[in-house]
Design brief:
With about 220 residues, this protein is α+β, with helices and mostly antiparallel strands. It has seven helices and seven strands. The chain has two domains: about 1-55; about 65-190, no CATH class. It has helices at about 15-30, 80-95, 105-120, 130-150, 160-165, 170-185, 190-195, and strands at about 1-5, 40-45, 50-55, 65, 70-75, 200-205, 210.
Length: about 220
């Protein structure tokens, strides 16, 4: 890691100033320690001095980072994020399955929605156009939650069960979220920056004249 600071030549003790500032910052951020630094002074001109600090501690770049609850990876394929959702959802399903026999279906549906389904829906618009294999992993979680809620066998057909619960499949939930955001943006129910990202769609009508959207 390399830090460059500019200090006026009249500064009496520039080394102590640099060390105190960087040390206070790094200690506050819990990043690294700056003790034992090497200093390299380069005379740039008569007005300032370029102080370059080389730190012995090496910070390795991470392959993923969390932002607003989404685990972003270096390729933006969101596979780590989906794996995180599946792991936590499977753990929660195993835990709440122990109390399934003591609750009614409606009461258990509320628990599943608050603990499992909400995780599938959170920021799911970011999952649009991902490979089907990744969406199927989330669909398996929803299928397991549906079977547990209705006490259905594992290998029964899942579509009637989802219809009974009024649950959209994962892929349709993603599309529905995008449509809701688009509707709100068009009707000024969402932040203005979302509407500025939309482009008006123009299609030729039967008469050959452009038929545009009303907004």
């Amino acid at each position: 890691m390399e830090i460059k600071l500019r200090i006026h030549p009249i500064q009496s003790n520039p080394f102590q100033l640099i060390l105190s500032c960087t040390e206070a910052y790094f200690f506050q951020q819990n990043i690294i320690t700056v003790r034992g630094c090497h200093y390299l002074i380069e005379m740039q001109n008569q007005y300032d001095i370029l102080h370059t600090i080389f730190l012995r501690n090496h910070i390795e770049p991470t392959t993923s980072a969390r932002n607003l609850g989404i685990l972003l990876d270096e390729t933006l394929c969101l596979s780590p994020h989906i794996s995180k959702i599946c792991k936590s959802a499977v753990f929660l399903l195993r835990q709440i399955s122990r109390i399934r026999d003591f609750l009614t279906q409606d009461a258990f549906k509320i628990i599943v929605h608050s603990l499992v389904t909400s995780r599938l829906d959170y920021c799911n618009a970011a999952l649009a156009r991902l490979p089907d294999q990744d969406i199927k992993r989330l669909q398996c979680i929803q299928n397991a939650a549906a079977c547990l809620t209705t006490k259905t066998k594992r290998f029964d057909h899942i579509s009637p069960i989802l219809q009974e619960l009024h649950w959209l499949p994962v892929s349709f939930r993603i599309t529905f979220k995008i449509l809701v955001l688009t509707y709100k943006a068009i009707n000024n129910l969402a932040p203005s920056y979302l509407k500025s990202m939309l482009k008006q769609y123009t299609q030729l009508g039967l008469s050959g004249q452009p038929a545009t959207c009303p907004w």
